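Hello Y.,

Per our agreement to keep a running log of every chain we model this quarter, I'm adding this entry. I've kept the format consistent with earlier entries: sequence first, then predicted structure.
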Amino acid sequence: MNIKAPVKLGKKTKLLIDELQSGDIAIIHHRDLDEIAARSLIKSKVSAVINCDKSISGRYPNLGPNILIEKKIPIFDVMNGDLFSILQNGDIVEIEGNIVSFETNKIAELMRITSDKLNKLIALAEKNLEIELEKFIDNTLAYAQKEKYLIMGNVFIPKTKTSINNKHVLIVVRGQHYKEDLNAILPYIKEKKPVLIGVDGGADALYEFGFKPNIIIGDMDSVSDNCLKKCDEIIVHAYPNGLAPGMERIQNLDLKAKIFPAPGTSEDIAMLLAYSNGADLIVVLGSHTNMIDFLEKGRKGMGSTFLVRLKIGSKLIDARGVSQLYNKKVKLSYVASLLIAALIPIAVIIFTAQPLFFRLIKMKLRLFLDF
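Predicted structure for the entry above:
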């Protein structure tokens, strides 16, 4: 294999995505490449992916590498070499076999992840899954014990400028199939007009579908500047001690925001925010709900998520995966069949009662023409 193209480098894949152009070689540093990152790389139409970490470490069977392979995008792990210290964005490199060259110099040795290699790595990861599950459960219980104050009323929850009381709230999280699920519930959005909350990059999905987010909440690390400027209200997720790194970006954009100090994920506090501000119903899509989801986010447990869902469960509808329930596409042949079926009884009535039908028409004409 021989690929020659400009490179774009980023140690945070979700931030690199915005810089990539069609044909670029993406150089990332992403252990256990997850599904969302892989799909974003595919959408960017990269010619190859070079990972300076292990694309699948064996901790758990992550989905990212297989998704890239299925889309015929070559993915390599660096075996020897420090590409981040040698290359800059826009440098043109050449991949020949398992060697990366820049300006005729060999700068790194690669290992291409093929389907055969990936299957072996996944088999090893699946054997390790029970061990990871046990650790995950222990961590979840430990975190839940430490973070129980989150649902005991001992955490400051901001009062929203947006009116939420007695309304439906839709929370969009940048998770698996979140755009497909959003498309599937468009009729609900148009009919019920819920308050729209975007969790970081989930806000851009709302904007992409033609909706202005009422509230954007999160670390502010994956939402676009344009979306931040268009929304009604911004709430920055801060550490429990009040430190909010995301506020710097908001201030640089000359925008205003409130701070929500809390443990856990931004989607957790988005649900808690909606519940505490009086939401009648909370619909969440793209959320993270299982062990693989949380391991892909680099989290060892789901204590806060467990607690928040326990508290708001009576008002919560999880719409994750709703797009997988049915296929909304209607074939033209089905429509034609329905029309024909509907016309058959009409035709039968007309032809079986033909004399009466024409006599009725004649009577109507006489009354209309007055003769």
